[in-house]
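Feature request, filed as a ticket because there's no other form

It would be nice if the structure record came with a short human-readable summary line next to the tokens. Right now we just get the raw output. Example of a typical job, pasted below so the devs can see what we mean:
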Amino acid sequence: MKLDRRTFIKGAGASTAGCMLASLPGSIAALGAGPVSGSAKHVASICEMCSTRCPISARVVNGQNVSILGNDKAKSYGGAVCARGGAGHSLLYDKQRIVKPLKRVGERGEGKWQEIDWQEAYETIAKNLNRIKQQHGAESVAFSSKSGSLSNHFFHLAKAFGSPNTFTHATTCPGGYVVAAKAMFGSKAKRDLGNSKYIINFGHNLYEGINMTETRGLMKAQSDKGAKLVVFEPRFSIVADKADEWHAIKPGTDIAVALSICHVLIRDNLYDREFVEQYVEGFDDFAKEVEAYTPQWAEAICDVPAEDIRRITHELAAAAPHAVVDFGHRATFTTEEFELRRALFAANVLIGNIERKGGLYFGKKAKKYNEFAGEMAAPVLVKPGVKNLPKIEAKRIDMVDEQYALIWSSGGIYQSILTAALEAQPYQLRAWVMSRTNPMQTMTDRAKVVEALKAMEFVVACDVYVSESAAYADIILPESTYLERDEEIADKSGKNPAYYVRQQVVDTIGDTKPSWLIWQELGHQLGLSQYFPWENMQTLQLFQVGKDAALLSKVKQDGWVSFGKPLMLREPSMVKAFTAQYPNAKPVDADGTYASQLSFKTPSGKIELSSSKVEKMAPGRGVIKYREVTMKKADELFFIQGKVAVHTNSATHNVPMLANLMSNNGVWIHPVTAGHLKIASGDKVRIYNDTGSEEGHALVTPGIRPDTVFAYMGFGSKNKELSRATGRGVHCGNLLPHVISPVTGMNLHTTGVKIAKL
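Raw output as currently delivered:
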């Protein structure tokens, strides 16, 4: 097939209703956009087809296509892009993409739209938001956004407006391990997978939920370093397929294995006693708690043989400190997410892999790196600040319980919007402004999300498509794709400082705008001009680099700029190379490391296996412990979900090239279970529970436990505007109950279902 613009647009519409697409106001199809124009030379930029945001190099080819390659200067990314990254051009000129502002003219969610200009859109939004603010207070408006660069300007607008209610997608995906890390270390931790000799994985499927640096690190560890990979997961995923051992663990029981590993490390005296004595608070309390968590105890809960747990733990200890227990991402979550992630971190702490190759480490941003170097080894970016922002007196809607204090500044409890909208608890939300976020898919209990959106007086969505959530908005603002916009320099520091920048590659198609400009212009319309003093993105970039034009030029030219040598404070070889490069570096310890400089932003200044702060926040949870949870009824099967390599959460299922690669999510079911239910592969099935009901097709496979069914997330959209994704597969969020988990505020990704042949 000839891979040009005409072919993709023609192919993308082959399985959809052409008359419907042509009639969708504000779309490229309605606009009739011509050939792509832009830079014929490679421009360094940043991908946005997933949250990893890899460095890329892109250019327009003959006005027909866009070449998107990896940036060779970003070594850890391998100078490559994944399938999603390579499909960015398919999103760019998809004829279903929205490129004009839209106003709802029918009932909310009915799918009737009218194209309007930007000024009318801004005036309509400002009129409604200011009215609601005057009548009910700014706090009655919620602002939610995809995390990352997209949220900065958006949340600045929220603060200027006076609302405390800003939310990322944290409690639907990464919030659990972030909160656990903050509780134990005082900050987020990173994995050095590429240098690991032994890796234990609890369903963090890096070969499908691809994070380019970590995925390549895992590949490097396995292929180049001969690392052993042990996977505990209920299904035979791609990462399980590539593992040395796969243990089909019972869903929701990961914590039992993790705590049992800690038990064996302590009981068999395999832990790093010296490290624990120097850096750990609360070890005695934790050790006492895990005395009862024997491998035999764990086997009865999780179906993993006790002898395997004990053997794996001994192998882990033998490889330490160049070994890691992966603390995971979006895996088989339960309501006890906080305890699970802390238990996984605890296993790492016990083997003393902190700031060691192959273990865990903390990011070295320029300011801290320069302190160690004794000189300006790396430029420090300046954060643009605005003085005299309104003082917000109102409390956030998720400030209902002190136990959630750690998530308030880490994205907030996203699903608390539903409770505030439908039950006025702790007070009534009346408007919802969304930026590139799709709660209809990523939150749980879709029906409740629909209710909440319908209950709002006013809803705004900024997106590139009429997403399943945007379909319920009053005004849709079309954002430029990542190939059409400039953004600030971003900090991507790891073991040493690094920066990169997104730059426009393609001339804007239609009448879209970058989100930073949308929120600035809306701020002006809202009467908040004093809080948006910058003229344009170039002004902000120059401010970031302290008016160092040469530095700005280099970042733009190279796209990825790193400084100095990688540094891990307790790794002698790295410290030696670091001090050799910087003559004025801090003096090293007698053992040739910076171990004495290792500190943690916790109340004790140490790693807290038992936390008085957590105990005060959430009584009974100061020490990590096992709590039994019930995930399903006796006559139900476990229902779990996961990510797939060609899609990102709920964001890419309508992108033509990716929809052609995978447009449906078969329901995995074990042959024995399928036999009892008289279900064969390809049969149409109904999967249902008290929350909802979905129809899909069965995929009978031995790669799943008999008591479990699985489906990839993000499919089964229910709005007609996404014609490639609508009705394709099972909508996972329609089967998951609305739950707010203790401490982390996470929603629930494991539940019980029944399944029947149709």
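Something like this underneath would help us a lot:
The radius of gyration is 26 Å.
Residues 253 and 301 are 7 Å apart (CA to CA).
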